[in-house]
């Protein structure tokens, strides 16, 4: 990235605002906004994300940056009346990361910069508190050593634990100034030994190195992993915030805390958060010391509490959303260190969205943007059965809801390893830190014995939608011996535990689960009422009703039988977008298909088709009845032949053994000859779909006849069948024309025989690159297209889905080649460009061409937005994903409407 000579790389907090997140990062933009609102923010300045990009691209900071930082530092020193690191009265600053999107704990922060051997005594004199000064100094060396110089953080932790053991105390606040002086000396030795250099005594060198460390942390392993998990772009860079220090560790009249304007777990209004006396900010989020509920601040320092409540109301009204706030009290003076729109659980997101509508802060369109399909999917997961017999181990803080069951593991490595082997695990730690992110992602849930609702574990778990219980103090976690002890019970690694993130309860063994109330609502078994579950259902109902009113995309289901179709209809399906008829040929009908494939004569083939016809007709009658009045798209037989034939190796062995016993089986011999004849090296690209229909005479016409006769029967029964016949795997219009002509002849014949007028649409799947590239020609013979994005993704990428996901997809995701699997979210640049061009070409030929998608992408939130954008008429997905697709279709419509109005 080239540098513009006139480019500004540093902004004072008085210069920015909340809309400059791209440039100033979320933290910097919001510090500026709070400053503009007249709230008590310590003075400081922000180094932009553009400076970070130059640094990461070139390996050096922009040449102009040092002078800009010097100018802003000079202004800060004048405002504060003291200089950075001044011996008798030092200005101290924090250097903190701040990307556009919140990445809690994933990047680096260093506090107390400016302290040195020369200035620590000056700080002690100014504060009148020697212990405070040496505590601040040891914190600086510890954070700087770990963050900037790459020293193993456990070395500092071990030294701190040894100091507490020697003093026979359990918390660091019980260490006095003399103890901390010794600890500072020991910490400096650790730095010298591990980093190969002395801890820097020059305050400006400390600040510059810390700024570079924050820039570098953007590309740290844990930050990259978190961005992949949260789908945050890798090219944004981070801003750096340099803020004058205020101190929460100056004694009992000081402290630090985190507050939420509403409960991030439930969405309920009230006083939520954590407070810790005589502490700095990292003590709260790290969960090292257990906090007190924020409400207790009222009795500790009522003036600060009342001021904080006023500020929280101001911020929520201003941001029109749940705000997450970090604050420090320095000897009775309240300071605001950060605010951001807070992460919340899925249930809280829906409740808060509707609450804010009722309060007149946002409208329904904005409420729709405050929730998403991933959150709705979380709410559809099961929960623990309240009537089940359980063995309660203990109780902690309900930090992120859900019902999670798994084997206990005590470190991130084991969590990942066992998870990859198919085990469900619960990650148990005293407290988590950013290095535990791999394990947190792999685990079903997270359990910690320390920390509160604002600890690292709680914040990250909520962001990921993971079940989490924090601060279960009665549980003694021994990570070295890999065990959890509570009372007389010992949980060893591998023992099963269950955690309830909605109540904070921890159980021994596996607790059975029951359906979610949200699923019961969609199934029509629950209605809005007064209790908490119904309150959530009511919020979901309101948001879904608005989404359904505004969405343009219709939502259909992938369903192959009447039972699935009825369930899909209850979930809001507006038809069936994909009925896979091959699923109707499994089980006892497999032998009939086998007989059809192996038929040597026309008579044998006609006999096999005659057996299949009434069975197929019965299937379709049931399906059309279940979806009466709604479209049902039936895909003619598509799978590769090997799915209906015996395994060639097993059959060869069976025949060989029979020959050895001189027990000849003519049917097996004939079957083996046919299997050899039809065997394909790559059956997914072989004789399947339309090719099968053209090679086996009568197969597709039998299916078309079954569909037509079933439709006629339903019409005679006063039903309203709306069948659509879809020809799969077409690569050229000639294939489609041949099958279409045969189908039209069969439909005409059924009309003559039944006297019932049939209106059956004929269309095709677009699942091969050539079909997409020649969509204009194919549209001449098709009334509708349905994009089969599963096969289209395979053929565009040259991937065999069944093979590559297990072999190298993990490596591709880790290396950042994929942000997400192209089978999960549509590849807009490749597969998406073919879909887009096929839409344009198809409609140019046939303006009334109906367009849909029936691959797995039809239920993926991000992909639904793409399909709305390119102009499809509907998406089709599995029944369980229908509510998600409905919601995202509404969100896509509201977003595009908002963009149009702007």
Automatic annotation (TrEMBL):
Top-level EC class as recorded in UniProt: transferase
Domain of life: Bacteria
Cofactor(s) the protein needs: Mg(2+)
Positions of the PEP-utilising enzyme C-terminal domain: 538-889
Domain PEP-utilising enzyme mobile, first and last residues per copy: 423-504
Pyruvate phosphate dikinase AMP/ATP-binding domain location: 66-290, 296-347
Catalytic activity: pyruvate + phosphate + ATP = phosphoenolpyruvate + AMP + diphosphate + H(+)
Enzyme Commission (EC) number: 2.7.9.1
Annotated transmembrane regions: none
Record keywords: ATP-binding, Kinase, Magnesium, Metal-binding, Nucleotide-binding, Pyruvate, Transferase
Pfam families membership: PEP-utilizers, PEP-utilizers_C, PPDK_N
Family recorded in the similarity comment: Belongs to the PEP-utilizing enzyme family.
Identification of the protein by name: Pyruvate, phosphate dikinase
Lineage: Bacteria, Bacillati, Actinomycetota, Actinomycetes, Kitasatosporales
Gene that encodes the chain: ppdK_1
């Amino acid at each position: 990235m080239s540098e513009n000579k006139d480019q500004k790389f540093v902004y004072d907090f008085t210069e920015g605002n909340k809309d400059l997140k791209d440039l100033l990062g979320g933290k910097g933009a919001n510090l500026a906004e709070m400053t503009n609102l007249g709230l008590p923010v310590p003075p400081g300045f922000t180094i932009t994300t553009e400076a970070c990009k130059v640094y990461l691209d070139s390996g050096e900071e922009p040449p102009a940056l040092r002078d800009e930082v010097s100018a802003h530092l000079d202004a800060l020193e004048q405002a504060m009346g003291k200089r950075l690191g001044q011996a008798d009265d030092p200005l101290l600053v924090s250097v903190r990361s701040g990307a556009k999107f919140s990445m809690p704990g994933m990047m680096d922060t260093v506090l107390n910069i400016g302290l040195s051997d020369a200035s620590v005594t000056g700080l002690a004199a100014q504060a009148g508190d020697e212990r405070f000064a040496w505590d601040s100094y040891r914190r600086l060396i510890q954070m700087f050593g770990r963050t900037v110089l790459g020293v193993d953080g456990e070395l500092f932790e071990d030294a701190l634990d040894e100091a507490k053991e020697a003093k026979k105390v359990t918390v660091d606040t019980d260490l006095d100034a003399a103890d901390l002086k010794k600890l500072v000396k020991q910490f400096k030795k650790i730095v010298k030994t591990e980093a190969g250099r002395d801890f820097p005594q020059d305050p400006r060198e400390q600040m510059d190195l810390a700024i570079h460390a924050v820039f570098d942390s953007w590309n740290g392993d844990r930050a990259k992993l978190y961005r992949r998990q949260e789908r945050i772009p890798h090219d944004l860079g981070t801003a750096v915030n340099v803020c004058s220090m205020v101190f929460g560790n100056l004694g009992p009249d000081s402290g630090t805390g985190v507050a939420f304007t509403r409960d991030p777990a439930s969405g309920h209004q009230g006083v939520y958060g954590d407070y810790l006396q005589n502490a700095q900010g990292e003590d709260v989020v790290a969960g090292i010391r257990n906090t007190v509920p924020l409400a207790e601040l009222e009795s500790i320092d009522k003036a600060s509490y009342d001021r904080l409540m006023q500020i929280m109301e101001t911020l929520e009204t201003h941001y029109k959303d749940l705000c997450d706030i970090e604050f420090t009290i320095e000897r009775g003076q309240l300071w605001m260190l950060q605010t951001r729109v807070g992460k919340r659980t899925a249930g809280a997101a829906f409740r808060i969205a509707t609450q804010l509508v009722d309060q007149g802060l946002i409208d329904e369109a904005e409420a729709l943007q405050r929730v998403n399909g991933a959150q709705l999917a979380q709410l559809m997961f099961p929960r623990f059965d309240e009537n089940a017999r359980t063995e309660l181990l203990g109780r902690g803080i309900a930090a992120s809801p859900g019902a999670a069951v798994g084997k206990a593991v005590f470190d991130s490595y084991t969590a990942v390893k066992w998870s990859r082997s198919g085990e469900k695990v619960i990650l148990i730690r005293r407290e988590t830190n950013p290095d535990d992110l791999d394990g947190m992602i792999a685990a079903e849930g997270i359990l910690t014995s320390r920390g509160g609702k604002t600890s690292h574990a709680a914040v990250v778990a909520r962001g990921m939608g993971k079940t989490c219980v924090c601060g279960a103090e009665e549980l003694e976690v021994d990570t070295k011996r890999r065990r959890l002890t509570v009372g007389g019970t010992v949980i060893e690694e591998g023992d099963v535990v269950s955690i309830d993130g909605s109540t904070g309860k921890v159980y021994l063994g596996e607790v059975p689960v029951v359906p979610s109330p949200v699923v019961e609502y969609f199934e029509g078994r629950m209605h809005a009422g007064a209790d908490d579950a119904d309150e959530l259902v009511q919020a979901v109902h309101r948001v879904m009703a608005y989404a359904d009113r505004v969405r343009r995309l219709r939502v259909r289901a992938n369903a192959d039988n009447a039972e699935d179709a009825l369930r899909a209809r209850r979930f809001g399906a507006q038809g069936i977008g994909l009925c896979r008829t091959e699923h109707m040929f499994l089980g006892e009908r497999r032998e009939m298909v086998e007989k059809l494939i192996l038929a040597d004569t026309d008579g044998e083939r006609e006999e096999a088709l005659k057996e299949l016809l009434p069975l197929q007709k019965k299937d379709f009658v049931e399906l059309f009845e279940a979806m009466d009045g709604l479209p049902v798209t039936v895909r003619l037989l598509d799978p590769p032949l090997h799915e209906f034939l015996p395994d060639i190796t097993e059959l060869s062995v069976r025949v060989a053994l029979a020959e050895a016993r001189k027990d000849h089986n003519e049917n097996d011999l004939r079957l083996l000859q046919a299997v050899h004849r039809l065997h394909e090296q790559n059956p997914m690209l072989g004789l399947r779909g339309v090719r099968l229909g053209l090679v086996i005479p009568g197969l597709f016409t039998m299916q078309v006849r079954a569909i037509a006769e079933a439709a006629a029967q339903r019409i005679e029964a006063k039903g309203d069948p709306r069948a659509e016949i879809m020809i799969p795997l077409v690569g050229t219009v000639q294939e489609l024309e041949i099958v279409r002509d045969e189908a039209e002849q069969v439909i005409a014949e059924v009309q003559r025989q039944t006297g019932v007028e049939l209106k059956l649409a004929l269309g095709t799947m677009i699942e091969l690159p050539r079909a997409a590239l020649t969509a204009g020609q194919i549209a001449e013979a098709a009334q509708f297209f349905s994009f089969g994005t599963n096969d289209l993704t395979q053929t565009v990428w040259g991937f065999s889905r069944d093979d590559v996901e297990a072999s190298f997809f993990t490596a591709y995701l880790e290396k950042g080649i994929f942000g997400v699997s192209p089978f999960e979210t549509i590849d807009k640049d490749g597969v998406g460009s073919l879909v887009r061009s096929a839409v344009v070409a198809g409609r140019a030929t046939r303006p009334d061409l109906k367009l849909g998608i029936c691959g797995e992408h039809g239920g993926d939130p991000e992909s639904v937005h793409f399909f709305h954008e390119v102009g499809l008429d509907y998406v089709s997905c599995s029944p369980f994903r229908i509510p998600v697709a409905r919601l995202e279709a509404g969100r896509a419509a509201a977003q595009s409407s908002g963009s149009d109005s702007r």
